[in-house]
# Entry
Amino acid sequence: MIMRARSVLGLCVGAAFVAAPWVLPSFYVGILAFAGIYALAAIGLILLLQAGQVSLGQAAFMGIGGYVSALVSRAYGIDSALTLVLAVAVTAVIAAAFGLMTLKLRGHYLPLATLAFGIATSGVFTAWHDVTGGASGLDKIPSLGLFGHVITDDRFYAQLIWIVVLLAVCGVNRLRTSRVGRAIATLESHDGMARSFGVDTTALRVKVFVLSAVLAALAGALYVHLLRFVSPSPFGLSSSFKLLIMSVVGGPVSGAGAVLGAVTLESAQWGLQDLLARWGASGNLEVIVFGILLVVMLLKFPRGLWPTVEKRLPAPAARSRDGAGLPMRRPDTKPGEVLLDLKGIGIRFGGLQALADVDMVLRRGELVGLIGPNGAGKTTLFSIISGLQRQTSGSVKLFGEPLPRSHLIVRNGMARTFQHVQLVPEMSVIENVALGAYWRTRAGFARSLLALDASENQQALATAQAALVRVGLAAEADLPAGSLPLGKQRIVEIARALMADPQILLLDEPAAGLRFSEKLMLVKILRQLQADNVTILLVEHDMELVMGCVQRLVVLDRGRMIAEGTPHEVQANPAVIAAYLGGSRDKAA
Amino acid sequence: MTKLLEVSDLTVGYGNAVALESISFDLARGEFITFIGPNGAGKTTLLNCLMGVLSPRSGTVVFEGRALNGEAPEARVAKGIVLVPERRELFPSLSVEDHLRLGAFLKRRRSREATATVLDRIYTLLPKLRERRRQLAGTLSGGEQQMVAVGRALMSEPQLLMLDEPSTGLAPRITEEIFDTIDRLRSEGMTGILVEQNANLALSVASRGYVIEVGNVVAAGAARELRQDPRLMAAYLGAGDRYRDIAI
Amino acid sequence: MDTALFLLVDGLTNGLVYALLALSLVLTFTVTRVVNIAQGEYVMLGALTLADLLQGRFPGSVYLLVGGLALCVVLDARRWRSDWKGALLFAAGMLLAAVGAVALAKGALALQLPVVAMMLVALLLVAPIGVLIYRFTVHPIPDASTIVFVIISVGVSMSVQGLGLLIWGASPYPVDPVASGGTLLGPVFVPYQSFVILVVALASMGGLYLFSEYTLVGKALQASAMNRLGAQFCGIPVAKAGGLAFLLAAAFSAISGMLLAPLITANYEMGFMVGLKGFVGGAMGGLIDYPFALLGVMMVGGLETTSAYLASAYRDVLVFGLLIPTLLWRNARQRAEAR
# Structure
């Protein structure tokens, strides 16, 4: 394997961190060890931030891990290799329970819930005096033992911590370019889109939360065995805040950001304390600087320091996209068979009947347009078909079966695009497209973190590359999706939908906001898809485009179907003309 | 004749999308014009841009002889431009009269009598609001909410009234009522821009019309003539055939 | 029975103090969408400023105020090139405000004003700091996500607390109650300070109510909270409305601090915990619903005194543990309403 410059550099920096304890004076070894511990917990927080969540209680999970390992090893004298595992397991269970409970929280509710959890947990550490020793804590915690080898040398301990940190950084960075990582990137603001490609976003959120807590627990356990003393204060709110600042300052875009943030902040803290002490100031005055730093970073550099560093680094090695693609599904096709069958669809919102008695079928190989004036109910019908909304009456049958839950629809062979483009703007075009194959691939957290997903990922990327070639965007594969003009973004959406190997493609206003030249490109792609026997349902405002492409049209007005037929028939239909142009108003003199 | 509003080469986009492409038109005092066109044509974008909710990518807007340049909506209200937005944007737990008083927020230093006179004028124009003056906006019907939105906009005694799809979601009878009110305002000399999907309705009140289709003006002229214009039908029902013969 | 009554009075008193905070939080959140973790810091500033004034020291919050005003001028620097007249006028205004603040503090000390007047002076010195914080942290990014605002307010809380430590040091400042002694109400001894708290808290809340219901500016503030865009279409300057919300919120929290100061030890770190308790109450109303927020803080006050009596070590655990199910309920309710 040829190593790229980036990997070599990363390896060198990593080796420097691991080797540093040999050469540093013992005071700095301590700082380095603590920085490593905080970096580990901050990596967890960064993972969470990548999923669009924020925790103000990360230190509480450190505390749980720390206390479990400390109490068990102290009480039973068990080797801490085992107590570390136990600490991680207990924390994982608690985090899963908390995650499941709070997962539906949105906006400001989740940070508040984690804040409350953090305060309540550190309250328990203090109040449960009989077990935890209360505010004064517990001492005589055994040193870290690894299968009988007791680690008493702080230098060796610091090296061990940094090995763990570097493994975590590699794992989290690896995760970003994996199947799971692509799905995590959608969690912040594209929940519905992710589900339409088969991501069980609910489960994924809980898993991310647990993984984040597990990293904190590991950090907490390493912390107590390093100090050989445990008390509630390092696991309180201020530590949670500190971890948050490290993640934000370092940059919540990469695992390396956590290391950068932790090292910067820990050294700044010691440096400032030293400086302030020389000026005769007492107390934690460095928090002023940290607080201001946090505000300024968010106002001016919301992506943290890491992107600035990264710009100067050689480009990362792209993951391989050569070789064969994923196997395609080979349905036994009967031309003209009914794929999608809507009967008597109705939906009410409060007092408003948004749709009533809509009947519609989609046959194999057809390109059907769904049109109607503003407020006709097209978007509502579309979200019912794609399972994001449930009808109040009537039935939807997909391949003769009732419509499954939204994240399972894509497995049955239906994929869609979105009216408001739902790409992850920072992610590259090819990664965005590869998300479309989520349901066709299997690698989960464990395989991605341990780099056991290489061949499957290669297949997925090869398929994505082929899809991009098919729509004529191969040259843009490695650009961030957000940097493309809208026309191309919409085509990337089509490529992503094709990645799901669909038999039915739902296109939601693919031409909205496109220039004429871009529309021509779109029409060409539609024609080509039709030639490839893909069945398409198209919602579109641009009448000229719709009329020029489709074979059949369904017209909705005020929630009801008012016409159906070829473009010519529909254009001549008086009911359609009245619906669009409006009834005339009698002007009394 | 002095122009109240002159718009030239206005181009507006969202992110990478273009919603309006070099639109130019002008409006004299006392004129009432309409922009009609199918859903998604960019009509709402035009009004939002004139109101300062969106900033244009290029082009100029001159109001009363002075260029508008990135002023926030509230500053444009102060200059005499008001918008009755499509979604009405009311305050659900404030009363009808609160809405009207807030509509004159910038004129709050006006004397009590002057405010009462304006309020009375609005209540005469929209008598239903007088009956409902103490009712909370959230409990009103769609038509009444639309009337509150119109009344609120008029309270600042604007130079230019802009209405965005006033017929959206309303029953035909209520729509009729709203349009009677608009017609009355026009006949009293109000300058206005009406954006409407319902072309026949809009052309029955306005004197001039512009047909927009996907961001471009495709036809313009006197309302009477525009009603018969084949380009109007084409804009709504896609009679063009630029896409018909595109090969793979 | 007597114990229960005593706890009730105590809980009610605590609840009223937290109520002022919860009101501040709801006001700030509804108008600006900022979940202000730093709200409690104004409690600390209010309490310590009053302590300074009553004990004849120059109030430390003036340094904060003057520093903030200076920073405003610095941030306005770019305007000098395009509009030097406006910038000069602005700088002069800030200078005037700074001089005014110093004069006010010096004057109050020289005249040895009575307690109530000193409270008013403290209020005048602390409340504008809220506007300054708004100017520095929210005004530049009005459309940021709630999460960003949460993290920013954490930063504000840390720096203000650190500045508090720098100005006042770590030692506690005793503040004499406005009224000492108390009276027997039936079987329960009620300190006069509780009455003072009751009166001031009710008067402040009543004032806010009257302001929002009977003045056009108050209505405009409500309108900005309910529909930002709609408010702009009325010509209401929503950025200023945000500043006003921060001003009022800072004032209410400062009052709460001044009432609280005699009951607990006033020091630089008192604000954070008090702020969080106000939060628990405010969150009961999802930070959007005043009556529920009031109910929430009364529950927090009651729970706190009861648990302090029964299982004092678990007080915070109980209070904050309660918040999680409350948030779940609120969130579910809000989603149901959105549907």
Remarks:
- The radius of gyration of chain C is 20 Å.
